[in-house]
Design goal:
mini-chromosome maintenance (MCM) complex, domain 2; 2 domains; four-stranded antiparallel sheet; three-stranded antiparallel sheet; 7 strands; elongated
């Protein structure tokens, strides 16, 4: 606590301003853009691009069977997949740019795209 006596009012002001700038900049720097479309790939190639402003459902054939993808309320999800572990179905609703659901056994993936992708540990 001896070092606290060395701080002057200007030092406290600089520290407070620094914390305020950090507090404001973190949400601005880490926010993602608006989701615009969902890109569905089958076997690594684009199968369909769906506009997220229109509600619809699409069936994507794969080596194991049909994967069903639904767009609703500007978000997308894999409703059903013939894969054994159902990881892509468990992903739930995808709504932010950069989010992806991969149905590896059926070679189908769904990715949300938009103007600006959100940061995550992979893109940082």
């Amino acid at each position: 606590m001896h070092w606290l006596a060395l701080l002057r009012p200007g030092d406290w002001l600089v520290a407070a301003l620094g914390l305020a700038i950090c507090g404001v900049s973190i949400p601005l720097a880490w926010q993602g853009g608006v989701a615009e479309k969902a890109v569905i790939k089958r076997g690594g190639e684009v199968f369909a691009e769906l506009d997220l402003s229109r509600n619809r459902q699409i069936e994507v054939p794969g080596p194991l069977g049909i994967t069903t993808v639904r767009v609703e309320k500007r978000r997308v999800r894999v409703v059903s997949d013939p894969g054994p572990r159902q990881y892509c179905v468990r992903q739930g609703w995808l709504a932010r740019p950069g989010e992806i659901a991969i149905c590896a056994p059926n070679q189908v993936s769904v990715q949300v795209q938009g103007g600006k992708e959100a940061y995550d540990s992979l893109s940082y």
